[in-house]
Known about the structure:
A: MetI-like fold; B: alpha/beta; about 25% strand
Amino acid sequence: xxxxxxxxxxxxxxxxxxxxxxxxxxxxxxxxxxxxxxxxxxxxxxxxxxxxxxxxxxxxxxxxxxxxxxxxxxxxxxxxxxxxxxxxxxxxxxxxxxxxxxxxxxxxxxxxxxxxxxxxxxxxxxxxxxxxxxxxxxxxxxxxxxxxxxxxxxxxxxxxxxxxxxxxxxxxxxxxxxxxxxxxxxxxxxxxxxxxxxxxxxxxxxxxxxxxxxxxxxxxxxxxxxxxxxxxxxxxxxxxxxxxxxxxxxxxxxxxxxxxxxxxxxxx
Amino acid sequence: xxxxxxxxxxxxxxxxxxxxxxxxxxxxxxxxxxxxxxxxxxxxxxxxxxxxxxxxxxxxxxxxxxxxxxxxxxxxxxxxxxxxxxxxxxxxxxxxxxxxxxxxxxxxxxxxxxxxxxxxxxxxxxxxxxxxxxxxxxxxxxxxxxxxxxxxxxxxxxxxxxxxxxxxxxxxxxxxxxxxxxxxxxxxxxxxxxxxxxxxxxxxxxxxxxxxxxxxxxxxxxxxxxxxxxxxxxxxxxxxxxxxxxxxxxxx
Lengths: 268, 252
């Protein structure tokens, strides 16, 4: 009975997933063409393609990860390897967890006030990616810390007993073993960044031009989809954008999975 | 009379308030195999880990008295712990190959010490593997994962890995506790071979193993060193009743 019930839940979950993907692809795929990918939007997106929004998405996400990953992984290393558990680490961890629960639109507002107006970065890739970086930081810290903690204590002991310094133990033994977990955290963060709309609209703006520097305003695919659908500009182009988003995320997961698989086979 | 390589003088160790070693006075002689026996919790592993300061990794680990390795106080302020651990190679109860190739496992210590020269590294790896007689079994798969080796092979790899440090001492913490009799025999044979070049301390919960390989045997009980003597004397005519009770299997 329990088995049947749980089986049903699992099937429902998987079916929902496939239904969403199927629905979006069915509506979006007919629009897709090389031209759709390679040309910039025209007439607010009613015509033309989505090239500039693809570039905007990549630029924004990559910059956000480049900012957040060193901070997040660094904090995780500090929390797990360089301090003993005490009230300070508990406060940091509690703070990070609270940060993870804050709605993204609040991050957007915060980023708008701090980066766009106060620091005068304007609506730009820089403001957007800094905001996204803050938003994904808690997830990154959390997943990296868990990955680092799950490295067997014996590895550390062996490393020290073979005459390694603390730094060598962390960088040569602990981090490589924790890498799959850390990369998982990064992928989750990339996914969240790509999909984020509220925080991005507030901070990176929605310019349709091709961005030329980190100070350019730029529109991401998610924002593009939102605007096309919300303002009723072009539903078919909106679904085309959505289809590309879904395919991109699928492809990214597949590539990472393959890479991890290869890495694991080599070292474990 | 062989010279003293390690000397413990009134050496005590604490984890927080709990005293794990009580004023140990013990000499380890050059090129001997010293067996340390005793029931679980008797402090024998703690003594071993005090020598290469691996106990330092545990919070509130504390020592009193002196522990001299080749005349130098291990706990003196100017001692380089990294250097110390290279001189006292340690083998753990469960073999722990690092998740990398056989070659890289053996080369690990030398790489950490900054050795980059490829041919020197390879020479070192081959030489160390040959000393543990693992060479014949792994020569055609040096670059495959060390985790694929059998338990006994992994443990011999761990011994090869510390030989590559060019240590003076080999500390073994119940190295065969998880191994089958044949693997155990191979490791014991390796230890006998290594004795001429290294000073070896073998902590074991298997008294018969001490009887088989150790030149001298020390008996620890509840953090006290009860007695230390020639292995034959310990096993034929121990001077303390508790030693007699332990080796004849009356407790432990």
